[in-house]
Design a protein that fits this description.
The structure holds two protein chains of two kinds. Chain A contains 15 helices and nine strands. Chain A is an alpha/beta fold. Chain A is elongated, with a radius of gyration of 24 Å. Chain B folds into three domains: 90 residues; 39 residues, no CATH class; 189 residues, 3-Layer(aba) Sandwich (Rossmann fold), CATH 3.40.50.410. The chains are: A alpha/beta, B alpha/beta.
Chain lengths: 303, 420
Amino acid sequence: MTATPTSIDAVETLLAGQGYVASRALATVVFLSLKLGRPLFLEGEAGVGKTEIAKAIATALGRRLIRLQCYEGLDAASAVAEWNFAAQMIAIRTAEATGAGDRDALRTELFTEDYLIERPLLAAMRPQPGGAPVLLIDELDRTDEPFEAFLLEALSDFQVTIPELGTIKAPEPPIVILTSNRTREVHDALKRRCLYHWVEYPDFQRELAILHSRAPEASASLSREVVGFVQALRREDLFKRPGVAETIDWAKCLLALDVVQLSPEVIADTLGAILKYQDDIQKLQGSEAARLLDTVRRDLTTA
Amino acid sequence: MPADYAPLDLPEDGKLAHNITHFARALRKAGLPIGPGRVVDTIRAVEAAGFTDRTDFYHVLQACLVSRPEERRVFREVFRLFWRDPRYLEHMMSMLLPQIRGVQEDRPAAPAERRAAEALLDGTTPPPAPHTDSPPGDEIEIDATATMSAEERLRTLDFELMSVAEMADARRMLSRLSLPVKPLVTRRNRTSLTGPTIDLRQTLRLSLRHGGEITRLARKAPVTRWPNLVVLCDISGSMSDYSRMVLHFVHAVANRKGQGWARVHAFTFGTRLTNITRHLKTRDVDAALNAAGAEAQDWSGGTRIGASLRAFNRDWSRRVLGQGAVVLLITDGLDRDPTGALAAEMQRLHLSCRRLIWLNPLLRWTGFAPKASGIRAMLPHVDSFRASHSIASLEDLGRAISDPGDTGEKARLMALIGPG
């Protein structure tokens, strides 16, 4: 287990060691979240590295990463714990067969942790080898408001309640990271308990650094062209602007095709890696991609 | 990155906690929801992070005090002003205050006041002759003023100065209206006596009462929830008589409990898109529409449906249409955009929502044919196309919403477009 970092600079180095190039603002909130033990609420466009940060923190600190993927209809049984009904039934039948059918004994025995199937939230409250785990509650906006309200207990007091067992409190609070793509507004009561950070698209230099650390095989000139082109795309009027994840994917696609330099034809062939809407792809077809590439080249040479 | 901040001139007394509290109060005044708990957290966070670098200090405060992306801009400005010189902000505020007061004093009379005065006089003064609707078929006059105006007419129209008689009519109409909707089935379950699936957890708990003997199976049924409603209302000149009534209607739907809708989001558009959801939350219909009118600067101007829908699709659709929302689009479809763009945006909107219902007041005229290019572009992309000019037609709307197969007049009008 690695000790928690003691300064913002230490957080930056720690994350950089995992190939995550964080902005100063993000490093600051991560540091605060670790230091104060507050959940971290990250919002931002898809593919800017919200989920990645949790993975990076977990690996860097040597903690276990517990992920709770949110979806519509997520309920306590799949988020906290579920009873192992089959095992319980067998226990009942065995008790009957052996004649040890004492009701109270059965009750205390059936609803014990032996018959409990842990789900992410409960697992995060348990002590783990290496220290308190990193709990990633991913895409919170996909679930509904009742579940958000349910999370309040878990996030403010770091405890969960199982009706048959009582309240289980975490001996050491987990490092909690919540992410949202903002397909709906998350309630203020939840946000208030968290440190908030809006994850921006990175600037040219930082995106270049990210690409370098994630796809080191790409040559310097290709990386610069790829990042420059994606940055230029983000300034265009698109329905869905490409994220950093798309930049990395695209670079990997180009590497797989043994491309050393961008050309309008290559862009047209691989556009599906960066743009995911037909309207956007149509906009970029033909001379538009060539025009954009020209401006990117011009900017790169003057810069 | 905030690189251009002036050096932090800390006040002489150096009471940092004190100053952070003042800063939080300044932000609260600027409209950010910051309670005392957050202030305490902020001070703790500053303690934890240390006070070494001014950009770090900025990020620390931002992490604690901001909770929405829109707030970052306000935060940045207040930060810049406040930590330069706290007195500067006070000075700015005192400069602003008299102006605000002046504006308020200049207002002729608050709308509610006028109605209160009329109510007190109680009919002793004859109300201004109400604008009587001509019976259908008698005289058809399409008010197309300013429909095609290229310039946005930036003026705020005082539309809520309705007379008591008009208001009473509207109220009576609205009180009879509701938008019944069918709840959506979710994937979550709840104990139910007659549910379709067995609730094993409950069954086992029940069995323990009988020493492990299962005497009856507990059952569970899926929970239902209400869908969201998104209203896009055209407030351009050609619609101005109508949109007033519609917004009353939307206000009623948004505020009446038990209507069935989980959330009602409302947007107005003329030449630009305005989100008036927050204003509609105001309980008093006068105050709500007053605030909405102040927010929407393009009241009774021209129409740019394509551009407005584009703005909606880009900035809002992912945020408000995510949970199976029904969209009510209220416009006459008289648009000056090139057809291609409008059709594409309509298609995008249709693909993003659960159901798209177009209400067009022009449909009230018998013999209405989809001649305008805007209407021809929009019609193929709606689920249902309906008139909405009378109580009867709005009652029909309720039926249309609860019936997923309803297409309204779409089929008839599509047939008119088809061969041509």
